[in-house]
Design brief:
By secondary structure, the chain is of the alpha/beta class. It has one domain (4-37, 55-322): 3-Layer(aba) Sandwich (Rossmann fold). Helix content is 35%, strand content 17%. It is built from ten helices and twelve strands.
């Protein structure tokens, strides 16, 4: 696969702003994050402008789910926790466009600590400004992030995006502990492919992926950390959408505020102030737990799957070049 040559900082910034203002936009699934018992497969042609589906919160729905939850915890030796079942909405291969025209990539495989084989796309450029590991949200697979990866390449960034276990071509079933293992394996792989130390990899995640990369940053140093539309903790999200069912979620599960406090390094975060899926207040709560240096970009009138703003892409370009 032909390797791309980096654009100048100015050219990369102009491209990013063009994408942000409508000349093009990264493809994302219709649901980047959801807690719902009814998985909805994302459309491979959906864009960030697609409005995030609202999570049902009717009393009869909650009662039905509460009954299911009680039956689930009483069942002997469940294979997956109930909150795992409510959190992950994978699209398996062949769903999606697995041969995107505008992306130069290499198929790569890595093995998680528990021996689960994980698939990803490595998108290299010559003389990269940074090596970025990207973790996506809880729906779809890496094919729905092809345009984002192409944009990162155009900005002079070598990136690796991976599918969590049970997503795309990756093996296994998704779980909260498992996706963090997958991220750790992907970081090791990117460092090896890029010829850099693991601590020199920049971690980037959106929605659920933000929680994954925050856990990675808490476990080992990172060159930088970028989080889009993510949450303070999984428990906080559950309390917001289903107050009666908050007991389902372990309060220590994907507790990003606690993990982020352990990270010492540059931090960039964005969040839409009209996000109905992960409320803006939970994004701000997360940001407050971060150490300096840190920067927060508000996406004005942005819902969960709204496009990022030109201001954010400027901040992203400045963040990468400052590392």
């Amino acid at each position: 696969m032909t390797r791309l040559t980096c654009l100048s900082f100015t050219s990369a910034l102009m491209l990013a702003i063009a994408i942000a203002t409508g000349c093009g936009s990264p493809q994302l699934p219709t649901r980047e994050f959801s807690i719902s018992p009814s998985p909805i497969s994302p459309s491979p042609v959906a864009t960030p402008s697609v409005k995030a589906a609202e999570t049902p919160n009717h009393p009869e729905f909650t009662e039905e789910l509460e009954n299911e939850a009680t039956q689930f915890v009483q069942a002997p030796k469940p294979r997956r926790t109930l909150d795992d079942r409510l959190l992950f909405f994978p699209s398996k291969h062949p769903d999606g466009n697995w041969e995107p025209e505008r992306l130069q990539y290499q198929d790569v495989w890595m093995t998680a600590a528990d021996k689960t084989r994980i698939h990803g796309w490595y998108c290299p450029v010559d003389k990269p400004l940074a090596h970025v590991l990207f973790a996506h949200g809880n729906a779809g697979n890496i094919t729905h992030r092809a345009s984002l990866l192409a944009m990162l390449q155009a900005m002079g960034i070598s990136a690796l995006a991976f599918d969590y276990r049970g997503y795309g071509k990756s093996e296994g079933l998704p779980s909260k502990d498992g996706v963090v293992q997958d991220g750790a394996a992907a970081r090791t792989k990117l460092a090896s492919l890029g010829g850099v130390r693991e601590r020199d990899v920049v971690l980037m995640g959106r929605s659920l992926g933000g929680a994954v990369v925050i856990q990675l940053a808490a476990d080992a140093p990172a060159r930088g950390l970028i989080v889009e539309s993510s949450f303070s903790s999984l428990s906080d999200v559950a309390k917001h959408h289903y107050p009666r069912l908050a007991w389902i979620v372990n309060p220590d599960s994907l507790n990003s505020t606690a993990a982020l406090a352990k990270y010492r390094g540059p931090f960039l975060q964005s969040h839409g102030d009209a996000d109905r899926t992960i409320p803006f207040a939970l994004g701000k709560k997360l940001f407050e737990s971060a150490n300096e240096p840190k920067r927060f970009v508000t996406i004005a009138r942005g819902d969960h799957n709204s496009p990022q703003s030109a201001e954010y892409y400027r901040a992203l370009a400045e963040f990468i070049t400052s590392l």
